[in-house]
Amino acid sequence: DSGVTQTPKHLITATGQRVTLRCSPRSGDLSVYWYQQSLDQGLQFLIQYYNGEERAKGNILERFSAQQFPDLHSELNLSSLELGDSALYFCASSVSYRAAGNTIYFGEGSWLTVV
Amino acid sequence: QQQVKQSPQSLIVQKGGISIINCAYENTAFDYFPWYQQFPGKGPALLIAIRPDVSEKKEGRFTISFNKSAKQFSLHIMDSQPGDSATYFCAASMLLWGQGGKLIFGQGTELSVKP
Question: Which of A8, A114, B28, B58 is the most buried (most CB within 10 A)?
Answer without folding.
Answer: A114
